[in-house]
Amino acid sequence: MLDVAQAVEIDSVVKRYGTVTALHGVSMAIAEGEFFTLLGPSGCGKTTLLRCIAGFEQVSGGAIRLHGEDIAPLPPHKRMVNTVFQNYALFPHMTVLDNVTFGLLRRGWGTRDAEARGREVLRLVQLSEFAQRRPGQLSGGQQQRVALARALAPRPKVLLLDEPLSALDLKLRQAVRSELKSIQRETGIAFVFVTHDQEEALTMSDRIAVMSAGHVQQVGPPREIYEAPQTRFVADFIGETNLIDVTVTQVSGAVARLQLPGGAAMDCPAAPGARPGPGHLSVRPERLSLCAAGQGDLAAVMQDHVYLGTDTQLLMRLADGARLVVRQQAGSGTVPDPGAALGLRIEAGAARLLAD
Ligand SMILES: Nc1ncnc2c1ncn2[C@@H]1O[C@H](COP(=O)(O)OP(=O)(O)OP(=O)(O)O)[C@@H](O)[C@H]1O
């Protein structure tokens, strides 16, 4: 059935370049007005998927629908989507306003309407007073906003953004992040945002699709991706985690019973697909705490520590040689001496059995 609340539906999309398969049957649905992020390491297929939505590439299998309509037969300029590229691709010899109106005039808008719309989107990105400058006379962040204004000008239904902040330095990137987010809210159109930066994804998105090697690993809101990762890849790629080898004795529904290294038993939430047998538990470093040797869930030996200002990273080893990291907040305890035997307590609800 057709679901009109979906701005974009990606349905079992396969993309091959000769013998290379860049997308292996990828599915996801992006809602109207949603800030949706494709996140994954270099080469996982993010840009390929964006290019398939934009129409710069044809899919090898599956379908892409925009507001319920299969867009395969439509050329890029008929798709009601627009793209903001990493390098902005502004015309250096044109004014800011002309850069923004250029695409409108090519689409057949009248000069007067194009100029009015151009000034409107420049107001939206707070660049009204720069309308007559050339791109070379603007900062990187301002050029990025011109590129955004230009892409928004024809009122696309979906805006695609391919690592639009990666050319900016860290401070500026953080400032532009919140601007971009508020512009998205104001326009109410769906943004499909590509990044390999997990912090960018966590801070800006309504939902994130984590991709690896042409597959979707998990789709969900940032908190769910961080707190309830389903696979080792997601647990490891998003933030920092401890992957602990465990023996799963029973899985019933979303709860697993397992045995920790050292023999202690515990019940914990399990990702869909988790099975009895050897398994991996993910526990974030900030959700482990120290206690006396012989107490807690795990027995560990202190190895080393790294002072990080707001907190300290404690590096530990379990009896089987596995390494664990504990994050201790500044002022919340003393750092044990190297070689000290300790207990580690896993905060209630903090452990998650992964599917692989
Ligand atoms: N035109 C092409 N011809 C052949 N292979 C390609 C082509 N474009 C992309 N690929 C391959 O497809 C895979 C996915 O590439 P893609 O650019 O989508 O990854 P990405 O996740 O966007 O990476 P990055 O973050 O580095 O841009 C890679 O293995 C890449 O080498």
UniProtKB/TrEMBL annotation:
Q: What is this protein called?
A: Spermidine/putrescine transport system ATP-binding protein
Q: Which residues form the ABC transporter domain?
A: 8-238
Family matches, as InterPro entries: AAA+_ATPase, ABC_SmlMolc_Importer, ABC_transporter-like_ATP-bd, ABC_transporter-like_CS, Mo/tungstate-bd_C_term_dom, P-loop_NTPase, Transp-assoc_OB_typ2
Record-level Gene Ontology MF annotations: ATP binding; ATP hydrolysis activity; transmembrane transporter activity
Q: Which GO terms describe its biological process?
A: putrescine transport
Q: What organism is this sequence from?
A: Salipiger marinus
What keywords would UniProt list here? ATP-binding, Nucleotide-binding, Transport
Report the SUPFAM superfamilies cross-referenced here. Answer: MOP-like (SSF50331), P-loop containing nucleoside triphosphate hydrolases (SSF52540)
Q: Which GO terms describe its cellular component?
A: ATP-binding cassette (ABC) transporter complex
Q: Does the keyword Membrane apply?
A: no
